[in-house]
Design goal:
By secondary structure, the chain is mainly beta. The protein contains no helices and 9 strands. The strands form 3 sheets. A 4-stranded antiparallel sheet has the order 6-5-8-9, with no helix packed on it. β1 and β2 form a beta hairpin. The protein is rod-shaped and about 110 Å long.
Length: about 110
């Protein structure tokens, strides 16, 4: 952007500014479903090349970490993941679905 200013005496000055728009940070996820019905041992791993990333799950507070970053102790459900880079730019969100296995059903029969 070039800006030229002229005062009442017709003295002028020109300034040139370069505005750089950085790309939004991106990430990928992998997940591990809970091992048993009703358990909370699932996890989501977030991998990014962003500098000094911060990570958020379900709209919560961003936390600093390194990539890959792991959200642990997760149960069955849909989780919303987002990251922020060193410039404060936030990524788009990604939904990750963790599913639990069906419950074990034991049927007893008289013998």
């Amino acid at each position: 952007i070039t800006y030229t200013y002229a005062d009442a005496n017709n003295c002028s000055a020109t300034c040139t500014f370069v505005i750089t728009v950085n790309a939004l940070p991106t990430f990928t996820t992998t997940s591990e479903n809970p091992a048993c019905n009703g358990s909370t041992d699932g996890s989501i791993t977030v991998t990014t090349s962003a500098t000094n990333p911060e990570f958020s799950i379900n709209g919560g507070t961003f936390v600093s970490g390194t990539s890959p970053f792991v959200f642990n102790d997760l149960g069955d459900g849909t989780y919303t993941i987002k990251i922020k880079d060193v410039n404060g730019c936030e990524s788009s969100t990604a939904n990750v679905i963790l599913t639990q296995p069906d419950p074990v059903v034991v049927t007893a029969s008289p013998t």
